[in-house]
Amino acid sequence: MKRILALCLAFGCLVLWGCAPLKSDPQPSAAPSPTPPASAAAPSQASTEVQANYRGKVVQVLDNALLLAGEGGAGDLCTLALKDVALTDAYGEPLKVGLSGGMKVEVGYSGVILETYPAQLAGPVSLRVIETGEDWVGLYAQVLQDLFRADEGLNAGISRTVFDLSAAGNLSESEKSALVYRMGQVLGYEAELGSYETLQSEGSIDPAEPYFEDGLLFSLKLKEQADGRITFDGEKWRSALGAYIFYDCAAEKADGVWRYTVGSHMVS
Description:
Blueprint: H1 2-19, E1 52-62, E2 65-70, E3 77-81, E4 86-88, E5 103-109, E6 113-114, E7 119-121, E8 126-132, H2 136-149, E9 160-167, H3 173-187, E10 190-193, H4 196-201, E11 215-226, E12 229-239, E13 242-254, E14 257-261, E15 264-267
Parallel strand pairs: 3-7, 4-8, 9-10, 9-11
Antiparallel strand pairs: 1-2, 1-5, 2-3, 5-8, 6-7, 11-12, 12-13, 13-14, 13-15
Helix pairs in contact: 2-3
């Protein structure tokens, strides 16, 4: 009897097990699909189209860059990097000569000018040489450096340099600004445009005892310009009894470069 009961119980368990729903093997969840890129297209590039043009004169050739004096008057100075800039001549042909001071150029750029001093032309694309001009800034920068080195005792204790360029008739107003900027860079002192009169009016020079205590006053005077030759005077002034003059200088252009000689050296 006990055997029959055990068999019945076993049979019942088998029936119940057979009626239970089959448990499926676990399936791995599907991996999330990768997030598609924001755009399947190539990344956008900055526009290389010319949005504006800037005309100026090359007043300094830097390391793969230029300093330009613009047509906007005093203070209109701009720099631009030459990397990837297409250089052409006046006819749009590839430029076959190197860039040099005095060249008048037109720069195609993005239209954005960074407000530094000098300003910076952003996104330059092209540079066309309109004509080969005269590098007056380069010539006068050399003259002023030579004047600074002459009688260096006059330079003791200075902290500023002032430049009277009112009689330098072959310089535009922006070229005057460029020359002063360059002198500040090369001499390492504060540099500004001015005159004996402006120094008097600001109290830096006492007319009763003429002496520029904290600086030097430089001046240039164009005397004659004709037939590829100019004559001029240059002066470095510290006081009524402390000045050095390059008198009756003559400059001529040879191999594309202006060079000068001093007629007389005068000391007071």
